Amino acid sequence: MVEKEDEIVNEIHKEFNNQFVVLFSIAGAWVCGSFWQMAINDAIKNIFPTGGVWMYELIVALIITIIIAVAIIIVSTKLKKEEKK
Asked: What pTM does this model have?
């Protein structure tokens, strides 16, 4: 009986971790998308000059994308290692 309960708890824990990775990935993608939207909008404004800081926003979008991608890889790798235990 106890083994079955432990198995259920482990299954719930694994599912929680999987859902957390999905949620974390979606949140990261949303943040990256927001920065890319600003960068692209400002790049277009730059093509049709109205001034602005489009280059800085483009650099920030790249940096944020890299940070989020690395964070997603780290979190998913850690959770996969936990899952194997």
From this structure: 0.52
